[in-house]
Structures are given as structure tokens and as C-alpha cells.
Specification:
327 residues; alpha/beta; Rossmann fold; five-stranded mixed beta sheet; four-stranded mixed beta sheet; 14 strands
Length: 327
């Protein structure tokens, strides 16, 4: 299979879905001639024209409002929020309307909407270009939340998201865009939303993660293997719906759990998984459910040393795993 980057996989998925279904279109700031700030939509305007690749003003509330109205009319919009930090003006349309419409109409009005959101730190984006926003959507019934870590998963999950009749928040970690490469099939394929993937089999402890930190967990697991500790790595891939079965099966097998994510530790995805395991797999645990997450600061610092202090990395995961292994 050919290799590609995460950003190439995202672009391929959008292109293939636009070719497959004329109801699919993209809109957002600079998505047309420039191809998006990260070039995720590069070349699409040449292939599909301005009627299906819409450059918009710098007005996120309008972008989401237009996309929501189009979804109500049977189209399949893919609005891009240029950075996660700019998503807040869209909240009324996305959380207040899109998430509630299907439930409020007893299923009569589907909302086939995919909101692409580049998120996360590690690129020195500073206070207003580095936020992790997943918890705000993870907490909202009616939204599906997807956070792939690899090109294979990004393409397959994005294609599934476009075909879904429910609103999907599709989170793409900016640092993975060109840093992470992987094999992607040339033919048609999709990955079901809501299914986690065991990226590495293990027997001694489980680490659960998603997005950029998934790769740090895999690197840490390899280091621990040299010390005789066999770590299983579970990639959530989808945050909502959460694949509780895969997580619980892994914890019941290994008896120990570390949850790693970049978002703030308090009230995050890791807190929900910790509660789930404490409730449904307590008798299988041989150590405390542990979390390695972002610090509870308002947003990502700009200074290199402060950003590094905030971000989880391979060394921090190794230290957390060693501590858990000692129980």
C-alpha cells in the first residue's frame, strides 16, 4: 500500500466523497484558491468549482449557520473551522441546534454535517491557535466526535463521517498532519464510527489514548518492552460514541490502566473512562486507574519551555507506565 501523511489522507477522503456524491461540498476561510491554511482542500476548487468549494468571510457563526441550513435541505456540507480556537462563535448552531435537531424532530430531520477542526499544541501556536476542544463536544449528546491518529484511520473515518446522517465533529491534530505517515489502501474503504482499535497487543497494562498522544504511547510501549513490561495500546479513534467494550476488555485482561490525552485533565475524556472502569471493571484492577493529561491552565503557552511542560510526550508516558508497573 502507498504511504501518505494525515493531511494527504484527509484531502483524499474529501475528494473521493465529492466525486461520489454531488451533494457534498466544502466551505470555510481560505478553503478555495489557497486550499485551506493547512492545504487540506488544495486543488479541490480546480476540480469542483466555486459552487462546491466556498471561500467564506472570517465569520465562523455564518459558516456554521450556512452549513446547518444546507444540511437541513439535504446537502452534505463539510465546514472547516480554521483552528479549534475559533470554534466558539459556532457553538449555538453546533451544540444548540445541530446536536438537538434529530432528537427534537423524532428523527424526521437528519443533520448530515461534518465539522473539520484542526486542534492541539506542539507547533508553537500560542494561546489562540493551540486549544484542545474535544471535551466540550464529548459532553454533548447528539454529536459524534472523531479524533483519528493515523492516515489510514483519518481517511476511513472521514469518509464514514460524510456518509453519516448525524452531525460529526472531526478533530484533526495539527502536529500529525505532516509528521505522521502510514499506509493507506488505494481502493475504497471506510472505518465504522464508534470502534476503537488495539494498536499494540499487550498483557501487563493498558494505555488508552487518541490523536497525537497515541504515537507517544506507542513509542513508550516499545521502550517498556525492553524492560520486560508488555503494554497494550488502545486507540479510541472515536470519542463519541465511546467504544467501552474494547476498553473494558483490555483492562480486564491486563489489570492496569493509564489514560493519556493532551486536553486538560479535569473533566476530560480520561475522567469519563476512569469512572467507567471503576464502575464496571473494579474487581479486575491491580493498580490505580491513572491519567497523564494536559495541565489545568486556561490555554496552551507560547514559550517553548512552557509548551513542553504542558504537553504529554514519550518520556512522560514512560515514567507514568513505570510508576503504574510498580504496583
Amino acid at each position: 500500500m502507498p504511504e501518505m501523511t494525515v493531511i494527504e489522507a484527509v484531502r483524499d477522503a474529501i475528494r473521493e466523497e465529492m466525486e461520489r456524491d454531488s451533494k457534498v461540498f466544502v466551505l470555510g476561510e481560505d478553503v478555495g484558491k489557497r486550499g485551506g491554511v493547512f492545504l487540506a482542500t488544495q486543488g479541490l476548487i480546480d476540480d469542483f468549482g466555486e459552487s462546491r468549494v466556498l471561500d467564506t468571510p472570517l465569520a465562523e457563526a455564518s459558516i456554521m449557520g450556512i452549513a446547518l441550513g444546507a444540511a437541513f435541505r439535504g446537502l452534505r456540507p463539510i465546514p472547516e473551522v480554521e483552528f479549534a480556537d475559533f470554534v466558539w462563535p459556532t457553538i449555538n448552531q453546533l451544540i444548540g441546534e445541530a446536536a438537538r435537531t434529530c432528537y427534537g424532530t423524532n428523527g424526521a430531520v437528519p443533520v448530515p454535517l461534518v465539522v473539520r477542526i484542526p486542534y492541539g499544541g506542539g507547533i508553537r501556536g500560542g494561546l489562540f491557535h493551540s486549544q484542545n476542544v474535544e471535551t466540550h463536544f464529548f459532553h454533548t449528546p447528539g454529536l459524534k466526535v472523531v479524533a483519528p491518529a493515523t492516515p489510514f484511520d483519518a481517511k476511513g473515518l472521514l469518509k464514514s463521517a460524510v456518509r453519516d446522517n448525524n452531525p460529526v465533529v472531526f478533530l484533526e491534530h495539527k502536529k500529525t498532519y505532516r509528521l505522521v505517515r502510514g499506509e493507506v489502501p488505494e481502493g475504497e474503504y471506510t472505518i465504522p464510527i464508534g470502534i476503537a482499535d488495539v494498536k499494540r497487543q499487550g498483557s501487563d497494562m493498558t494505555v488508552v489514548s487518541y490523536g497525537l498522544t497515541l504515537h507517544y504511547c506507542l513509542e513508550a510501549a516499545e521502550q517498556l518492552s525492553l524492560e520486560g513490561v508488555n503494554v497494550e495500546v488502545v486507540d479510541l479513534r472515536t470519542l463519541t460514541p465511546l467504544d467501552t467494550e474494547t476498553v473494558l476488555e483490555s483492562v480486564k485482561k491486563t489489570g492496569k490502566l493509564l489514560i493519556v490525552h493532551e486536553d486538560n485533565i479535569t473533566g476530560g475524556v480520561g475522567a469519563e473512562i476512569a469512572a467507567l472502569v471503576a464502575e464496571q471493571a473494579f474487581e479486575y484492577l491491580d493498580g490505580p486507574v491513572s491519567r497523564l493529561c494536559g495541565l489545568d491552565v486556561p490555554t496552551m503557552p507560547f514559550a517553548v519551555n512552557l509548551e513542553e511542560a504542558y504537553m504529554p510526550d514519550t518520556d512522560k508516558v514512560v515514567q507514568a507506565l513505570r510508576k503504574l508497573a510498580a504496583y
